[in-house]
Amino acid sequence: MENEVGRSLNNAEKIDSVKLAEIEKGKPPISVDLAYASEPWWYDARGFLILTFAYRSTLPAQLRLFSQNISDNHLEVAIGSGTLLNLCLLWRRIHNQTWKHIVGFDYSSQMLSGAVKRFKKDSRIQLFKEDAANLPWADCSFDSANVANSLHSFPELEKSLGEIYRVLKPGATLAGNCLLNPGKVWVLDRISTWINHWGMRKGILHRPYERQEVKEKLVGAGFLIQKEVVRGNCYDFIVRKVKP
Ligand SMILES: C[S@@+](CC[C@H](N)C(=O)[O-])C[C@H]1O[C@@H](n2cnc3c(N)ncnc32)[C@H](O)[C@@H]1O
């Protein structure tokens, strides 16, 4: 039986590399394109430095958080170049955990082009160019969602959380993390602050948050907090949608 997800996906625009190029043809670059103008490989190298010095988190911690929250009907929010998702899927393969269907989206064509290349041979992964603040899918479409390293980049955080909540089914979980204002740790907080200011100037960081602020925004969107932990300058969480 084709479910709501199947129907809404057919109505949305599936992206492959040809479609992506067509959508972008002749359009003047907008601020998103300029902010994410780097090549996907450079994004990955830079991302590792940002993870270590601004988030003060580690890749294994991220893999543990996100690879556990991939259902058979999963939404990967702001997938970027797909590097982290790819590692999560490798992690699941190593731990004999299967998955069936993943929908991923991002609003930057440059970032999405990396994911399109990476997953072009896997028909279980569908990619879309979408804004988290305005999703095309029907209410209650997905059983799980991950939003990795992205909440602090969203220009419209409340609206985006509201949209993620809407497209999740009751009982579905959302795993995510959010960059916090650096805590006072010797010279490390100055390095984090410097990287954050650079990120905000470049347009890839909206702003870092306080832990309580993020929690209130998640609860305000309707989510129930299931797990939360602060690691370095990162607030990691798993939340659940309880009501329809
Ligand atoms: C730091 S990257 C994280 C990418 C990936 N999740 C990862 O962990 O490697 C942040 C991503 O958020 C995307 N992004 C920011 N605001 C967005 C929005 N409103 N809608 C969709 N994607 C957005 C950017 O284009 C970028 O790819």
What does this structure look like?
By secondary structure, the protein is α/β, with parallel strands linked by helices. It has one domain: Vaccinia Virus protein VP39 (Rossmann fold, 3-Layer(aba) Sandwich), CATH 3.40.50. Helices cover 43% and strands 21% of the residues. The protein contains ten helices and seven strands. The chain has helices spanning 4-11, 17-24, 31-35, 40-55, 59-67, 83-94, 109-118, 157-167, 188-202, 211-221, and strands at residues 73-77, 101-106, 125-129, 142-147, 168-179, 223-231, 234-241. Strands 3-2-1-4-5-7-6 form a seven-stranded mixed beta sheet. Helix 5 (59-67) crosses helix 6 (83-94) and helix 8 (157-167) crosses helix 10 (211-221). It is globular. S-adenosylmethionine is lined by residues 36, 78-80, 83-84, 106-108, 111, 131-133, 148-150, 153-154, 160.
Helix-strand layout with pairing:
Elements: H1 4-11, H2 17-24, H3 31-35, H4 40-55, H5 59-67, E1 73-77, H6 83-94, E2 101-106, H7 109-118, E3 125-129, E4 142-147, H8 157-167, E5 168-179, H9 188-202, H10 211-221, E6 223-231, E7 234-241
Parallel strand pairs: 1-2, 1-4, 2-3, 4-5
Antiparallel strand pairs: 5-7, 6-7
The structure holds S-adenosylmethionine.
